[in-house]
Every structure is written in C-alpha cells, then in structure tokens.
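Record type: monomer structure entry
Structure origin: computed from sequence
Chain ID: A
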Amino acid sequence: MNGKGIENLIEKGEGQDLEFKSMFTNDIGNGVCAFANTNDGTILVGVDNKGAIAGVSKKVEEQIANIIDSCDPPVRAAIETGIVDEKNILVVKVKKSRQVHSWKGKIYVRVGSTNRPLSMQEILELGQKLGKIRFDEQICEEASLDDIDWDFIKSEFIPVYETVSEKKVVGNPGELLESLFCIRDKKPTNAGVLLFGKNPQKFFINSYVALARYKGVVEDIERLDYKEFTGNLFQQIDNCDEYIKERTATMSRLLPYQVQRQDIPEYGLFSIRELITNAACHRDYFNQHSKVIIKMFSDRVEFYNPGGLPAGVTPKNITEKQFSRNSIIAKVLAKVRYIEELGEGWNKIIDEHKKHPLRPEFPKIKADDYSVLITLFSTKEKFKKKIAIHINERQRKAMTYIEKHGRITNKEYLDINKGITARTALNDLNDLLKKNLIVGRGEKKGRYYELQ
C-alpha cells in the first residue's frame, strides 16, 4: 500500500474495521481473530493509538505471519508494507471468516475500536449460529435406551423405512438407530429422543407444536380452539397436519369437460404439511423457552418457528439455498419422505401456489435473528365468486381426447377439428394454457399438451 493510502486510513481513525498498533506485540493476535470472527478489518502496525507514526522493522512481518498461522484455526490475511515519513508501516488485511477463530485459547470479536473476548455462553451461541454445535448431535445425558419407544420403531417406523428404501432392515432396531446417529455410545442422542422417544417433552419441555384457532382475522380473547401436539416428531407432524386439513374449507366446481366435480381446498395441502414439518425439523431446540406456534385465522394460517434463518439465507433466496439446523433429524425425516431430501420443499410450495386454480397470494416470510414467521393466505373469499370456465366445442373435443390418450399434439388437434387453420389451433391451445386446464411439454415440433 502506498503512503497516501496509509495516511487516509490513519485520518479515518480506529473503529469497527481499523486498529492501530505502535509496535509488535503478541496481542496483535487478538485483533486478527476479532476481525476474522466479526468483519473485514485492517491493522496498521507502526502507528500508535493517536495516529502518530512510530514505524517498525521489516523483520516484524515474519513475526506477524507466525501469529496469523498460530491462530486456531489459521486466519486468512495479507500483509503489505508501506512507507510514511520514511518509516516502515505494516498493513495487515484480515478477511471475515466462516469459521470461529481463537488466539491463545480465547475467542475475540470486534466491538467498535476494541477486541472483546467472548464469555462461555456467547461462545456456545456463536457455535450454534454458525452450525458448529448442533443440538440434535448431542447425547441426551438424562435419557437411557429405556426412554426410546421401541414398539413405535418396530410397528410404524421400520415398515415405512423399508417401503421407501425398498430394502429390508438388516440387524436389530438398535443398530438401525445407531446408523441413523440417533444412538451413540449406548445413549440416545437428542435427535433420537425427539424422533423416537416415548415422551420427548420429559427432557425438552417445549418441544411440541401449539395451535390456536380464531374466528376472525385478529387474535381474540376467546379462541375457537387450542391444541398442543406432543409425542415424537412424527406424531406431532401427522396429528397437526390432520387437524388443520380437517378444518380447511373446500369448494367444488364442475369443469366443462368433466362429469365429476373438482374439489379445491382454500390452502395448498402440500404447503400445509411441508410448513409443519419444516417447523418441527428446523426449529432451534437449544431455545427451550419457546415452541412452534401455529395460528389459524379466517383468512390465513401463521407458522411461528423459534430460530432465525442462518447466515446467507434470506426470505428472498430461501428457495435457492439449502439449510438444515438439525441435520440428523432432517436426514431421518427424509428417509421416510416426511421432507424433501434434496431441499425441494420450498420450490414445491411455490409451484403448488402457481397451479392452484384460485391463484392464492404467495406465502409471506418474515425473519430475524431469533425466529421465522411464515404466513399462508386463504382463498376462501374467492369461493363466493362464481368461477366459470368457458371453452368452445373444439377445445372440449381436445380435452376429451387428452383424457382418453394422455396427451395431444398440434397435429392431432387439427385432425380432430377438421377445417380449422394452424393459427386457430394454436390460439385454442394457448387459451387452454391460460385457463390452467392444460400444460405444455417439449419444444417446437416435439411439443405436446397434457391435463394440468
């Protein structure tokens, strides 16, 4: 760095991303780790805390490099040399890291112009936030193998597991749970207790789903109903899903080409189950002061989940990022198809909303460092409007043809509607696409259409 650049930094003064050191001392390691743990930062060695130029020997560069390499784990940083007032200044540029770094057994963070060591509680919280300490991986010291519901595993979990995996379980149920990391060192892990425990709430008091149902659009003093879904995670998900769907309104409509009526639920049924499962799977179980809360109103359902979104995941990019706070729980749920193993759940929620005949508003996501709130919006108001889908006789023939043959091409459309032009056929098919009655597959000459 040239002298002018260093002078500009000195003029800026010490702060959140800049520190001065008049000489080499070992506590430069504090600053290196603090910046790596907090934000990009620069240390000027050879400048005192008042901004006066002290200068350092060029030999100091090697000593600073040793400190950088001695951080645990080593920090990514660059050292540059500059000259101000004919004196050597070393410029140490540190990049924010995704890891947690310590110096001489302490973890530092940058707070203003100081490097502050973290308390033990803060270290645990930082490890949890970065996913270095996972709740579900820990052994549940208070529990024993007698607290596992072996009857549930044998009669309900293993049959589904074998059906989905298309192979028989080799060995006994205990060995299966060990392979799923639900048992370690002959003790249940937290994941094992939550997934297969006889009474998980005995060990984690708020590990259940609370649901309140209201008559209108605001929280009233009097609720229509209040339920607590306890038991293991499979039971919570299934029972809560069943409860909500039993109270989800449904309308019926008769499409012009069908004999049977089409039932249309006010909410996407996949979306309901996926959001319940996501809440149970991805909540912050370290926080036992709160629980998963679902609120049903006349115009929406709200899903409240303790634990904010991780670094890099936002409400805008949640469909693109894959994340699991509790990876063992997620993997076990995926083994029996309670969640999407490839992280496709949110894409399917959006797709379900796009294909819903009543075009509901897309889910709304609000998140902070401590919680996530997702809202599904009802289409019940649209039930009151008469939904008329008009199609012409040519289109009616095409819909009947697709029902019989599974698909139709442009050429086949022309064959069953003699005397029309290719332009008319294309217009008819595009109209059916707009009315969400068919879906197009393939490109150009190979293009065909199926029922939506």
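Annotation 1: DSSP finds 15 helices and 20 strands in the chain.
Annotation 2: The radius of gyration is 30 Å.
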